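can u pls check wat happens w/ manganese (II) ion
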Amino acid sequence: MYEPRPEHKFTFGLWTVGNIGRDPFGEAVRARLEPDYVVHKLAELGAYGVNLHDEDLIPRGTSPTERAAILRRFKKALEETGLKVPMVTANLFSDPAFKDGALTSPDPWVRAYALKKSLETMDLGAELGAQIYVVWPGREGAEVEATGKAQKAWGWFREALNFMAAYSEDQGYGYRFALEPKPNEPRGDIYLPTVGSMLALIGTLERPHLFGLNPEFAHETMAGLNFVHAVAQALDAGKLFHIDLNDQRMSRFDQDLRFGAENLKASFFLVDLLEHSGYDGPRHFDAHALRTEDEVGVWAFARGCMRTYLILKEKARAFREDPEVKALLDEYYRADPEPLALLGPYSPEKAQKLKALTLPEVRRSRGYALEALDQLAVEHLLGVRG
Ligand code: GCO
Ligand code: MN
Ligand code: MN
């Protein structure tokens, strides 16, 4: 019943299941997995697609002949399995050149190189059929304010995004650009730290319709923000282009935990929101197995992400169909026609009537029954209802 299938649109990055378990204190604990091997394993597990950074597939310094050979092998694996590559992204964080930013480096050589790398990644993605281009400005930030860069960075970032969108149009690639906010790590502070700040930036771009969000569970959670609300706002703006699912404890380093490993209730309401929102893009897991794991643990991790999603989806369906939940929600949203007639678009008559309004005292003393409603959610999650 909870078996992942391609129609569920689950995707993983080559860098996620391929994560070799390095951390700031310890070296790699797992061997690198070949991209074509990852494709076969993900297909076996029932995933829909695999996403990649340019360098996950084509390491820096690869010769054109080698590049062609790698691509041939990778495409063959995609053909054999039917796995898709819905999203690509440029690695703008590993190269030492990017230590003070890539698209917002103070050095125009570095900015130009970061842009060149982005255009080449768009070319690569187009060859693989990708339609979504993620921009994660992980190095676009600072530890030092003395440079005054915080005032200039927006302009450079905007310039680069405008250039990339124009290039995509010029080439007929048809990309939709998904911007991924994160508050910190690897920089002390990253510019554009939240879904809200990315949404505000999009309105200042030349082709705002081509830009949306790639929000990540861990990123809003690190900052102590509510990820469900962030996704709801992106949906409201018509800007949920992609999503990075994982888990995270608040105020910690970037943990990239298996989906549902930590915040089950928030994950439940996230799946509830996504599944009822009409979002039909990939459900991408940007997470990795714990450093304690060998390769067996990696595939257990990947399968776990997808199964938890499907279990929560089923629980969300049962919760929404529970007659007690429905009755509580009917009452919660009950709307008397009298005040409703005073709301909505402005008119001078409505303004007059509003000023004459007296709030019935019962509106102050009413209860909203949220304790009962929340307990029903908990009981569904604990498996004693539905
Ligand atoms: C992180 C980010 C990255 C990006 C990826 C795609 O915290 O490291 O989430 O994993 O999602 O680079 O742009
Ligand atoms: Mn992340
Ligand atoms: Mn991410």
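The CA atoms of residues 9 and 282 lie 5 Å apart.
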